[in-house]
Design a protein that fits this description.
By secondary structure, the protein is an alpha+beta fold. The chain has four helices and seven strands, in the order βααβββαβαββ. α1 runs antiparallel to α2. It has a seven-stranded mixed sheet with strand order 1-2-3-4-5-7-6. The protein has one domain: Gcn5-related N-acetyltransferase (GNAT) (Aminopeptidase).
Length: 151
């Protein structure tokens, strides 16, 4: 895997990106959300493919012309940031957040408290906790932390 300097960030194309990005979402979620069942993940993947990707403003990071991650924005809220686990550790997530910040200024995100790697990642790049909720958007009892990075 090459380093992020060979990475390219581009706009999302619904027709060609929807399925590969839903697959990246599932691979990354299996690593980041091991507390969710496979059935929950497959159910959520369908929502990612059919609802979230078409409704969000998505930016795709590519390595050698292949999508390896994406960020989905709803105004200045990060609805999702997912990088293929095979490409972790190369600065791709950080590059996607930097791109979003250039476009939007301040950013908000919600992460599972149990996903310690994600909480630490956002903390490292300047996000701070603003509130906690006892359950996620699906109503599952997994604590969610809302974090904000000001412009």
């Amino acid at each position: 895997m090459k380093h992020a300097h060979s990475a390219k960030i581009r706009a999302y194309f619904d027709t060609t990106d929807r399925n590969p990005l839903a697959d990246i979402w599932l691979k990354a979620s299996r690593v980041g959300h091991p507390f969710l069942t496979e059935a929950d993940l497959v159910d959520q993947q369908a929502k990612v493919r059919e609802i979230y990707l078409p409704q969000a403003e998505n930016w795709v990071v590519e390595l050698d012309g292949q999508p390896v991650g994406f960020i989905g924005l709803i105004d200045s809220f990060i609805g999702g940031l997912f990088v293929d686990p095979a490409a972790h550790g190369h600065g791709l997530g950080k590059a996607l957040v930097a791109h979003a910040a250039q476009l939007k200024g301040s950013l908000d995100v919600e992460v599972y408290a149990e996903n310690e790697a994600a909480v630490a990642f956002y903390d490292r790049i300047g996000f701070a906790e603003v509130l906690r909720k006892p359950h996620d958007d699906e109503g599952l009892l997994h604590e969610v932390i809302r974090m904000r990075r000001t412009a």
